[in-house]
Every structure is written in C-alpha cells, then in structure tokens.
Design goal:
By secondary structure, this protein is mainly α. The protein has a domain at about 95-290: MetI-like fold (Orthogonal Bundle), CATH 1.10.3720.10. It has helices spanning about 15-25, 25-40, 45, 80-115, 115-130, 135-145, 150-175, 180-185, 190-230, 240-250, 255-285, 285-290. The longest helix is centred in the middle third of the chain and has 37 residues, at about 80-115. It is elongated and about 75 Å long. Keywords: Cell membrane, Membrane, Peptide transport, Protein transport, Transmembrane, Transmembrane helix, Transport. Belongs to the binding-protein-dependent transport system permease family. Pfam families: BPD_transp_1, OppC_N. This is ABC transporter permease.
Amino acid sequence: MTAEVASPAIETRPGGLWLAFSKNKLSWVGLGLLAAIVLVAIFAPLLAPYDPLEQNIVSRLEPPSAEFWLGTDSYGRDVLSRLIYGARISLVVGFVAILIAMAIGATLGIVAGYIGGLFDQFVMGLLDVMLSFPTLLLGLMIAAMLGASLENLIIAIAVTEIAPFARVARAPTISLKQRDFVEASRSYGSGHLRIMGRHILPNMVSDVVVMSSLWMASAIRTEASLSFIGLGVPPPTPTWGSMIREGFENILDAWWLAVFPSLAILLTVLALNLLGDALRDAADPKSRES
C-alpha cells in the first residue's frame, strides 16, 4: 500500500517575481528590450523594407540614408533588413541550444547528485573536463568537426552549456535527497525516478530556469563569434556575426556594417542579463530581502 507524499516547494512566493521587478527597475528595461527584439524577429517579413537576400550592385556600400536607413553592404543588400532577419537566427539558436542543454544538463545533474558515489564522480569528472575548455574554444572545436549549418551550430552551443546546467542541478539535489519528504516518499515505496521527478525536480527547477536566461545571452554571443569566423549558418542567410565579419573587412570604408549588428548583439545580451537578474532575485529569498 502506497500513499502520496507532498513535497513542499522551497520558497515559492506568488508575488516574488513582481516584487523583484518592482525593486529592480532596470528589469523592466530588459523585459521591454527583449519583447521588442522578439516581436521584430517574429514579424520580420512585415518590418523588413527589402528582401535581405536581394543584391543590388549599383547601391553597394551606401551609407545610411532616407532610402537605406542603415546603409547597404558590399553586395548592395539592405543592412536594416538583414539585421531584422538576423534576429531570428540569434534567438532561435540561443533558445533551442539552451533548451537542449538545460534538459540534458539538468537530467545529468539530478541523476548524478541523487545516485552519488562512483557514478557521481565519473559524471562530474567528465563535466569538469568540458568546463576546463573556454566556451568559445569548445564550441569552435565541435562546430569545426560537425560542419557549418544551423543544426550543427545549435548542437555545438548546446554541448558547451551542458556542464554548467549539470552543476547547478546537482548541488540542490544532494541537499534535497536528504530531506524528510524524500525519505517519507522512499519509505512508502516510491521508485527513484518518481522521487527525482515529483519531489526533487520541482524544488530546483527555478534555479535552472533562472540560469537559462543568463546563459542564453552567452549562447547568443557564442553564435555570433562562430558566425564571425565562418562556422555558423552558411551564407547568404543573414546572421549578426557574419554581418560583423563583413563589416570588419570594410571597417575603413563602411563603418555601419559592423556597428549596427554589434549594437543588436549588445542590446540583446543586455536585455537577457537584466531579465536574468530579476528572475534570480525572485528565486533567491536573500536577494529579495536585501
């Protein structure tokens, strides 16, 4: 005979998120910026004044003007249109890569922390090896082995973020598995998978979600860096990193090619960091009290 054991949530205050946003006014700026960037990416076909792939050699390397608000590139393509469509690549790569890394990393961290012993040491040893490489260098090696494509770029970035997620999930799991409600559930005959899924995961998922917003900013920077060196999405698909690369090659003649995509990356990363700070304050009672 088994009975259902309720696992108390560790600090879940309904107004915690609202309180964190109220105390941190900059979080509203981050939320507004991110919402605007997402809307621009969604409605790119409606907002882009020109086809981002259309070439016009007659209008090549024109500076910002009333006709081309952000100028044109060396092929005569409108920079504003390519910038708008490039937001889609950055957001999709960042979101999907972090989602994959969060699912795999959190699962590894929970299982390793719950089982412990040699298995925990083995998994953490492998993750420590991954963490010993700088994120960009590890992503570069994986992307170079897989080849340049959207799918391979997502895989490369996801692999670089698995280890941090695993560490974030493992630490609270080690503490939670000693709690009374877990022991009570185990005494009632609950299996290991049920305990991890119903009692441990809900009590540490907020930490993982908070970090995902911060690491999505890192994923977008990595995507831009890999695209800059030619290991991102193949041309002519517009990406912010490849636009910066072209601007770097023409920095003396066409400053706008590198400046505007760099500003787009800066604003996106800033928005995610500001939003992540608010989510962290909402999840951490000590941050809210201070």
